[in-house]
Amino acid sequence: MKQILLITDGCSNVGESPVMAAAHALQEGITVNVVGVVDYGTIGELGSREIADIAKAGGGISRIVGTPQLAQTMQMMTRKTVVQTIQLAVNKEVKKILGEGSLEELPPLQRSQVVTVVDELTETSDLRIALLIDTSASMKPKLSAVEDAIRDLALSLEAREGKSEIAVFHFPGRLSDGADLDMDWTNDVSGVRSLFSRLRMKGATPTGPAIFRVLEHYRYDTLDGYRDRRPAEDQGEGEGMIGGYVV
Amino acid sequence: MSSNPPYPAGTVVAGKWRGNRYVVERLLGRGANGTVYLVKREGRREWYALKVGYDTLDLQSEINVLTSLQSCRKRNEHRARRENPLSSFLLEADDFVDGNNVPFYVMRYVQGKPLHLFLSKNGPSWLGLVGLKLLNNIRKLHECGFVFGDLKPENVMVSDYGEAELIDFGGASPIGRSVKQFTEWHDRGFWNAGSRTGDEGYDLFAFAILCLRLLNEQGLKTAATQLPQTRNVEELLRLARTLPDKKLASWLILAIKGGFSGSEQAMQTWKEHIYTPRTAKQENIATPRWLKSAFALSLFVLAITMFWLFRL
Ligand SMILES: Nc1ncnc2c1ncn2[C@@H]1O[C@H](COP(=O)(O)OP(=O)(O)O)[C@@H](O)[C@H]1O
Ligand SMILES: [Mg+2]
């Protein structure tokens, strides 16, 4: 399972549309969640609409919160998205067998069995989350909170039984319009320390190009033969994953 | 959905699959996963608690935990040759047809107060006894292969006579799995004191925080609001050491450091060092002098009676 978690505090203003970039992500089997962080005032109508649209295009969830709720929100979103992805795949299987897809329609016994499978897979399936952090000037006072929230998320992921990895990107990047990689795929919580300490903050917010950069990174890994996974486009991944469970 | 107004008194919650009907008496409480009502089954006299879920998957997950706990307890009680009908916590699960098919389940009504309110009303001297009962419940849960996860005073109900019951199993997960639901202050990870993998030590840590919170909430708050980098276990240990009851302090320190082998040992230690001193005092109490003299007197009376009896 693949996710992108975008953390930003405003509108993009450079490069391709982030909504389109998110749509591309979804097409490649990557869900995009967005957290808007604001401590004072509001994020503005334009900003909040963009945040909602990116998540919608990316098949994910969006929330606007202050820094105190950041860690909890990131975990809630990650978990919810995992559950939804699995539920979707499981529902497809269930429909084949029972003719009924939605959990609400199932009689108690079947429902209990399906949820057991969903819970099992939620805990054991492999998971990769790319964190994409907006480090434009306005984000500066929030970055230490962001880092703590990332560490907290990593701690929760570490407790899962399935292999869980995170990577961290920030944007704008130094050279390109896209994003720079701060930490490559890891499951080591202790790696999440002083990620952004050497950053020089710039003003532009190229959210779209940054998402595309993360997609490239995901793709690059797949080409590299990362544990001979099937290509991301293979939508059957979910089904293959649960094939052994629902009989 | 969580913002829906609660059902008014008199609402009949009828099950879609099993057809049982429950009459709402009043709201008991709302939480993250659902709304809980005090109900009576139509035509019966017993009270039950009925939880209406916000999300079918989350509620079913909770029901699944309760179901496997139920069968585990039944096995254990059968082994102990003790048939206790009160032990059935989960009665049934169903969907409320007229309420938009929302899922609900029916459980035993646990009369009482949440732990923090009980202690603030009755005084901290109850902690030894209530803590022991709570630890025993946690131990039984662990025996069945589950950790509670979200252990906090709000999720413990205490009857007027100090019986402690865990409610809200929404955070419970099989031992070895990641903890599903937790509350910052009570979470081992929050204090940089260990992982979020559900093991017996996780619940014992949360139990220790629960004690600290009940005895020195302000101190805990100060420690908790420190920056995440500086927030650490040392602060908690320091708080524990300031408690006047030194035996309790040592127990808490051990639990915070993850020093117990499991909840069995933690409970036995609590029983011996924090709970027992009171009963020990009673056992060792010498027979009071007045009773001794009363006894002597009655002997004397008996002797005189006999004397008169035999004389006649
Ligand atoms: N079995 C019960 N008996 C009495 N009161 C209960 C019972 N279960 C829950 N409650 C009350 O309802 C509140 C919310 O229930 P809870 O199960 O904690 O919901 P959530 O999982 O949403 O947090 C509790 O805090 C408590 O006051
Ligand atoms: Mg609760």
From TrEMBL, chain A:
Looking up Gene3D superfamilies in the UniProt record yields: von Willebrand factor, type A domain
Q: Could you tell me which residue ranges the VWFA domain spans?
A: 128-247
Q: Which organism is it from?
A: Paenibacillus albidus
Name of the molecule in the record = VWFA domain-containing protein
Superkingdom of the source species: Bacteria
